[in-house]
Amino acid sequence: MSTSLRLLVREALSALGIRRFLLGIHGAAFPTLPGEDVGHGTPASDGASALLAFASELGFDGIQLGPPGATSASNPSPYDGTLFSRSPLSVALAPLTRPEWGRLLRPEALEAAAAACPAPPRRVAYAYAHAANARALAEVAAAFRARRARGEGGAIADLAARLDAFRREHAGWLERDALYEVLAARHGGASWRDWPDAADRTLLSPAPGEEADADGRRRALLARHADAIEDYALVQLLAHVQHAAVRTRARALGLALFGDLQVGMSERDAWAARSFLLAGWRMGAPPSRTDPGGQAWGFAVLDPRAYHGPGGTDGPAIGFVRARARKLLSEHDGVRIDHPHGLVCPWVYRATGDPRAAVRSGARLRESPDLPDFPELAPLAIARADQLDRTLPRHADGWVTTLDEAQVERYAALLDVVIAEATDPRDVACEILSTQPYPLRRVVERHGLGRFRVTQKLDLDRADDVYRGENARPEDWILLGNHDTRPIWRVAESWVAAGTARRHAEHLASRLLPEGEDREAWARDAAADPGALAQARFAELFVGPARNVMVSFIDLLGARAAYNTPGTVSDANWSMRLPPDFAAGYAARRAAGRALDVPGALARALRAQGTRLAAVRPDLLAALDAAAARGSAA
């Protein structure tokens, strides 16, 4: 591959009307070089630069990252991570052994940690990486403190000045997150909900009349644990500076960085937000075609009564969301909103009892004006009783039938805050999957936003199915799969095994072959070849109407294992990563028809335009065909 391929792909995408072409990959999956690998990937590693260059050469114009927050020692899910602090695991250790960082980490310490890493090169060794990273960063912090105390200049003096400025700029979240770290360590790593000391549980949310005592206790903790607080801030500075360098590197390659604003709230953030949470309630996913039993996420719920203050000012809940959105969007060029239902019409259930049963019988927070089993939700409702369709289950998209503009504006309160922080609202990707309740549809429409079309999930028996590509709108985001789905290669094999491959091939022929071509013969041949079905389903992403295409790294590179299996706890979840030689592996699989062929897919999509193909530069198709042939012969 070369930069000429990028120019070809970009020209083809423009001819097809594709606005965004993103590669989705989480930070842990990035490749690292052997000498820097302690069991966990990071976009800031030396090895990660190869992936950015690879994506640029293939014609992508952006990278969709996962949530950047810190995760606990026992839970690697990035969707349970912190909302403000960046993960210490995102800090690349190798640069800290070099002069620009004052050689704060001994090279032999990194070498020993990398040599002892137990993980195979394609998997994250999460527990090991969490501990090894913590030890290395503790060494960095101790070395910095000692050398600053000696009055050392150069890189150390520069780092000290940057740290002071960073702490001033981010004092709001840095202080509270660091305090949680201190208190959690005091309580053996337990969640704040289990801390025996009520004064610790309510440190940032004291009862009326106890504010002065809590403030005095907070100041005392900050003074007593000043070194630990500073160490926490130093690690956060390193993570933020390295992320900014990744963003600069990506921009130089023509790549935007998209962040991920997850619907959940970490325990650390719930502790900080305790005073404006809806006590006794949790957020989850309602029953759906993907999971008929729903999903008991267990996430905290913001109290709508805390959205606004006197005179329409920001209340603490809105202020919290605004600060979070502002930070994330200041560090990225766009954002994927994970389950925007949680910002508009969250599905809630009581925090007591069996969570699986509770989530199945839950309700939507803002559209439950008179449910006999949830009378507490009535004061929080926006939809009125006369606006509900009682013939439907209350999780159904059509449960609410009508809304006036004032009601839509109330529903939009939190999403509006996120949109206001975006440079270009078109770069806000709303992960709306099989369900789109009427209030959510009205809210995203007012901003001209789309939804996700996951074509591997399409229902061929329903012409109006949301996952069929032909039903998309220009503002939608279309993709084969995401971090929660099986790789397209295994899905295509399941079509063959289930005897539905011919129907899929016929649908693809109607989408990809212009009138006059032998669609029946093409469908017959494709139905016998799972690889051909996967490649054709990829090409279909580009034929419209959706103008935003997102490709998961597991699909692009021909992986056969899922990245995450929703509703399960397993060491395999969130652990897939790319080896240093990923590009050679991709070339071999692409040549064998077992990895996605970008120029080949674009050539097929262009030919699907039929008579409109005349508007395309005559030699573009030939150049794409030649690039595809070179890949096939690799």
Strand arrangement in the largest pleated sheet: 9-6-3-2-1-12-11-10
Proportion of strand residues: 5-15%
Question: So how many helices?
Answer: 24
CATH topology of the domain at 17-261: TIM Barrel
Rounded radius of gyration (Å): 26 Å
InterPro entries: GH, Glyco_hydro_77
Protein name: 4-alpha-glucanotransferase
Catalytic activity: Transfers a segment of a (1->4)-alpha-D-glucan to a new position in an acceptor, which may be glucose or a (1->4)-alpha-D-glucan
EC number: 2.4.1.25
How would you sum up this structure, described in words?
The chain is α/β, with parallel strands linked by helices and 634 residues long. Helix content is 43%, strand content 8%. It has an eight-stranded parallel sheet. The protein has a four-stranded antiparallel sheet with strand order 5-4-7-8. α1 (3-15) packs parallel to α23 (598-607). The termini are close together. The model has no long low-confidence stretch (mean pLDDT 95).
What labels describe this entry?
alpha/beta, TIM Barrel, 24 helices, 43% helix, carbohydrate metabolism, glycosyltransferase, Glyco_hydro_77
What is the element layout, followed by pairings?
Layout: H1 3-15, E1 20-24, H2 48-57, E2 62-64, H3 107-115, H4 126-149, H5 154-169, H6 171-186, H7 198-201, H8 211-224, H9 226-252, E3 256-261, H10 267-272, E4 281-285, E5 295-299, H11 316-330, E6 334-337, H12 341-344, E7 347-350, H13 355-360, E8 363-364, H14 405-411, H15 413-421, E9 428-430, H16 438-446, E10 452-454, E11 477-479, H17 488-498, H18 501-512, H19 519-527, H20 530-540, E12 548-552, H21 553-556, H22 582-591, H23 598-607, H24 618-632
Parallel strand pairs: 1-2, 1-12, 2-3, 3-6, 6-9, 10-11, 11-12
Antiparallel strand pairs: 4-5, 4-7, 7-8
Helix pairs in contact: 1-23, 1-24, 5-6, 6-9, 11-15, 17-20, 18-19, 18-20, 20-23, 23-24
